[in-house]
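Regression test attached.
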Amino acid sequence: MNRRDFLRLAALSPAALFALQTGCFRPTGGGARRVILLGMDGMDPSLVRGFMASGDMPSMKRLAAMGSFGELGTSNPPQSPVAWSNFITGFGPEVHGIFDFIHRMPGSISPVLSTSRVVGPSSTVRIGKWSLPLSGAKVELLRKGEPFWKSITDDRIPVSLVKLPVEFPPEAGRARILSGLGTPDMRGSQGSFTFFTDDASSISDDTSGGIVVPVRDYGDGSYKIDIVGPENSMLPGAPKMKAKATVWADRNARSVRIDIDGHSHVLGQGEWSPWIGMRFEVIPGISSVSAMGRFFLKEISPRIKLYLSPLNIDPENPALPVSNPPEWSRTLSERVGPFYTQGFPEDTKALSRGILTDEEYLQQAGIVLEERKKLFHHTFSEFDEGLFFFYFGSLDLNVHMFYRTMDPASPLYGTTDVQLFGNVIRDLYREMDSIIGRAMEMIDDRTVLMVMSDHGFAPFRRAFNLNSWLAAEGYASVSGGSFDRNRELFVATDWAATSAYGLGLNCLYLNEQGREPDGIVPSAEKYSLLSRLKNDLEAATDSSTGERIVREAFITSEMYQGILPEYAPDMIVGYNRGMRSSWETTLGRYPEEVVLDNDDPWSGTHCVAPSIVPGTLVSSRPVTLSNPELKDIGKSIASLLETTRLPAGGRNIFGNDV
Amino acid sequence: MSDFLDFINRIFTDITTILLLPFGGLPPLWGLVWLSLLAGVCMILVFKGFSDQEAIGSLRKKMGAQALGMLLFISNPVTVLSMAGRLILSNFAYLWLILKPILVIAIPFVILMGQLDARFGKISPSQLERITVTLVYSNDLPERNSFEVKCENANLMEPFVFIPTLGEVSFRIRPGGPGLITLDTGGVSFTFGEADTRAGSVSIREFDTGTPFSRIIRPWNAKASISSISSYAPSKGRIDLPARRYDVLGGRWSWLTVLLVFSSLSALAGAVVFRVKI
């Protein structure tokens, strides 16, 4: 008998009503009592096939044999915030509104984060130099659409979603949620490190991913450092708050003592500190916010090089909400210890900028993985019934950085120590396999285990400067010299002669009249212009390799159904295998070369045409749908749990075999 | 004198320990709240015993009348100003009346705060993976090559950071388990941590070889024992422990906040029950 039959027969029986209310009624048909869903960001089905065959993923192999293994259709574009939003809502960007990591608002070219935004207090009162808020500021989740788990929690079925992507801040409701990807650091960025050094050669104006702070020893072996924190919106100009610390250097011992907030921490060269708390005074003596960071003493002699991780929201005392219910993050922190709360914990930017070496980066990534595993083992041990979702991001970020170790065609293959780092990716997949093995211990007749990923991976060998190409092809006009061309946010753009521009990793916008600040393209000519652009992009080739740059360019009004939001891009550029947009072009620069080698350690990508990078889906129950997609997972889970109402989006991948 | 002061300190510590006995097996917050409530009641009784209750009562009535007078004669600025002046003087008189009981309360309150800080202020060393120890030297720092520390119930972690400017040497240890940790260096032996595993036990986190007077109000500071005279013996030392926070009403409170809130509540309640005029 399933839930629907029970309703029919029991009608208004008080006992039946009570059973439903308390959730103690569980499906008695072919449905599941428990669904375990492991989200392994970036797990590539081709790599999984290879590792299963080589014996490196025995648990995955057993799971696949139990049910099914296959590809999972990803989003377009196949970027994590878009993909996970598809998963959560059961619909594409036309409903949830996330098209890229960054958007631009009509009327402005300035990029904004696509997943969340801070809304200041509606009213303040000035007392001297202070602007005291009369109402609270808040962080808004910009992802639209009803999450699939609402239909599950409406039936009072327990739901736990740990490190859920694109869910910051976490929505109130019956589901237990710990926010993951998209959670900012305390500076409001996706991860901004600080590097203290007296090495002049390290100091530059480059602020991408973090800041380099020059320090000096005043002769007594101490360095006075200011740790830059969040902005203080209560003061005019919102200056950044600072926490003071003193670093005492003992060069003979190759170590330092860091004194901060009345506490002392000893650190040897090459060591990572534990999480260290620090407070930023909003109103001295009255109000402060807490944060935490990890120090790494890279070098002490001849120059001091001290790395500080992005300042994370302290889960034990969160300055911003990272869990629902709010106290859950504190409980977890008390049980497993403090953990990274920022959405992208692996500091890939520090590696890209040469602040951390490959080995040092892997140490940091290892810390992240160990914390995540502890969190998994604890939350999984508490799981009894309903839906349990746990997210691992280690594969995604580390494959981004170490794809070059398995790609002989990568420009960096020759300079990478493949002997030393050649097994990084394989070892990570083995780690994921051990997690799967742990989860498989719970499989029984009424428990379904699914492992999914949001996309696969492809090499990033050649970087395409989309904006430079647009200028070369006459779709954009650039003024100024080389200096202006290399400045961000379209400083060099002559908008009066520009009909299209690229912003973000895959998005292209027309400079439309009445929509863009200096738009010149009449609405009536949009479609013909887009068609021409599509043809030209798909015909463009890399002069060095002869390969096509773009596999397919997608006109969004054709691709997505319904009325798109005003800020939606006009085109999604689906790059060919081996290609991707350059970092420079994503924020409106116009470098001289149109296509060049990617010499950044970020050597793997998934921001290409979706058909190149499908995700992975493995299930202990056979999947009957031939082409499952991310959008289908939510409805399928609700079907397994036999909820009264199914989510609106997606299809049931298990067909009628429930 | 030194022995006498240590004896006094032991008395205060033992009294507090006895008061906390019923709560030894419960989470620390129970004992902290209990002592805070008790402190509030004791304070209000001391206040009653050492204050001129009649004078306070009549002064309060007078102040009330002066405040009311200001309202009644609001249209007459001269009268209002005159009443305001008298009210200010009455306030000073009130402060004078409560000064004696407050001074009497202050001393045991400060001693109590020391006891509470020592018992509830910091996380126990045995709960931590590593602890920073800092030794302070009045004279020169010891020679790096001959610097040696022996540990009991803990493992030493290198490196040792020498800071000549401050006269300090810092290093880390890894606690071996519950109970006291003993470090021995330069002829000085000092013990820290909690001798007792029950909640609310005194946790030693500082030591010195000097005067014990401050230990009465800082019971977390212990006397080091000197086994041999050495010019490279530390004169003081401390271990770095994170502050303990308590979950109260959805917030994360320090021990001091718990003490102030609950002692105030019980003092106010005591004032009603025992008819104390404040």
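Expected vs. actual: identical. The longest helix of chain A spans residues 358-382.
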